[in-house]
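Worked example 2:
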Amino acid sequence: MRYELRKEEDFSVSKWMGGKTKELAIFPPGAKYIDRDFIWRLSSATVELEESDFSKLPDYDRVLMVMEGSAVLTYDGKKSIRLKELEQDSFDGGAKTKSYGKITDFNVMVRKGGDGILDVIRPDSDAKVLGDTLHTQRKCTTHALYIKEGYAVVNYNGKMMMANQGELLVMEFFDEIPVYAIMGEGVVIRAQMGYDYEIPEGQGASEEEAAPEDGSEDAPEESIKEEPAAPPVMDKKEEAAEARHVDKGSFAENFKWAFFISNTQFRGAKYVAKKLRSIWYDDELFGAIKTLERFFVTFIVFLIGVVLCLFTYATGNASEGRVLLYMALWLVLDVLLVSPLIYYFALPKPIGSHVKDLDKMTEQEIAMMEQRGSRDERLEKLLAKYKNTGKANKL
């Protein structure tokens, strides 16, 4: 599973004569709505006119959910439906669709041959398991959680992900089963899309269809600058390689954190390193540290060095005093270089991004920390600190 948390600064906004459209996510990356070269697209639009026309998208199926207000949609003058808040309807993008009423909506567009649905989730403090309700036969499945109100914490196979109001958590599943747990509060709109990697031949939109109609729901500004054509859809190997090509930080910065962490993994470390009292390690970093401890990796490496020092004495190649010197030098080398390097290679990077400043943590992050408190004595004491300040009483 690959995921991405998209925030307000990641969304692109375009104007049309009836309001604004906010593009939340599009696949493949680099595709453009105006070129109709995308497989799926998520957006939110404001309709500020009492009557407006939607663009024709004959190559796409659509789902629209009202987030605020109410509206009546008509299709080809033959069918109509009234939608209130959090109600939805699916329709053919090629239909002549008119909207009556001022609303803010949530849109899913999926290229024909794929699948797309919407549902509403109301998370609470107790985690609930969500399964795939799309049951698509396509190669790939994407679940996108838009936080309309409140916040949500998602747990997929021990991987914790959090999104706040106005943010979009996109999870791409390849060979995995899309089953995960969610907790939090508020209202979450979930989009599920099933699709293939390659755009089927003959499905490209014609030039006439690609030109958005004036007054359409998603029509971008006329002043928008032309951009290079979107790259072709990547195959699995190319996409996986791109996912791995991320900024993992500099060696110096990562080694600094690895040195600090490797030398503070002992009882009472917080009395020696006061910094430990004001930081918290997220679940990914905490899990990597515990794995090293569980298998005694650094201890075994240190023990091997000690045995080698004693071996030189046992074979008569070094005197007792020299062996003691070797052991002292090995101890210094282990503390300053060997153990930090082991942690450097084992911990997720950039390491610093997984270290949280307690004074800057949100209440939701503190809630995540509290869930681990029962398994971590140091966390229990940190939580006690917050309870004394009254900050944890809101949890």
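DSSP finds nine helices and 19 strands in the chain. Residues 320-346 form the longest helix (27 residues).
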